[in-house]
Write a structure and sequence with these properties.
about 230 residues, alpha/beta
């Protein structure tokens, strides 16, 4: 099948974590991925987890290109104003667990709240984007719905472009482990080793937050500083 301009010419393996996944969300996501994101000649798969406890102990997050995570995975959280602190939501707890495994795993949060402070907190905790779930209970304008959907498509595209971040973080951790070993065995100076690790962390942070070419260029310049440090040492 020929390549369609505007669609990713790579396969996609996605995961949906949502207690309402079987209520139409999984089918909707599959349709979006197949019709709006991935070239028809490539495969699309979407696995589903519906239980909070299963999500906490799941061990294969590293294998997914993008994870769609609902903020409220417990029925009691659907009761209005029952939980006010974003850190207490079940989805937030799963988000932290996944980012501990590898900060480069791309996660898009599903939330019914459009409160700026909640969204900002989720992004601070490592979420790579969000989608505001619409419901018949809340009357939203057609304009909002259209913009919300278009932004969701862009967010998925951005996350797929950032797939290499998993490998970058894994490689960085390996390098830092080697440096720690060298410092412990007194093969290199401790202050030098710590400086290199700090530059690696800073470069990853810049690249991870990058949205434009200049952002990525800055991240690579910081990595180049690591090379200079090693060369000077």
């Amino acid at each position: 099948m020929p390549y369609t301009i505007g669609l990713f010419n790579e396969s996609c393996k996605a995961l949906l974590i949502d207690d309402n996944a079987t209520s139409g969300w999984s089918e909707t996501l599959k349709h979006i991925l197949r019709s709006k994101i991935i070239n028809p000649g490539k495969s699309v798969s979407l696995d589903v987890i519906t239980l909070f406890d299963d999500a906490l102990k799941y061990a294969d997050y590293i294998n997914y290109d993008v994870v769609f995570l609902d903020l409220r995975l417990l029925k009691e959280e659907d009761k209005s104003n029952q939980i006010n602190i974003i850190d207490d939501f079940s989805g937030t707890k799963v988000l932290k667990v996944i980012k501990e495994i590898n900060p480069g795993i791309q996660i898009i949060i599903f939330t019914a709240s459009n409160k700026v402070w909640n969204i900002e907190k989720l992004l601070e905790l490592g979420a790579n984007g969000y989608y505001i779930k619409e419901s018949p209970e809340y009357v939203l304008s057609t304009r909002f719905s259209k913009d919300n959907y278009e932004e969701f498509i862009k967010t998925i595209q951005t996350c797929l472009l950032r797939k290499p971040m998993k490998q970058i973080y894994t490689l960085s951790q390996n390098i830092k482990s080697i440096i720690t070993s060298f410092v412990k065995n007194k093969k290199i100076d401790r202050s030098f080793g710590e400086s290199v690790k700090q530059y690696i962390d800073l470069a990853n942070k810049i690249v991870d937050a990058g949205r434009a070419e200049n952002d990525f260029a800055m991240g690579y310049l910081v990595l180049f500083k690591c090379i200079e440090l090693i060369n000077d040492n």
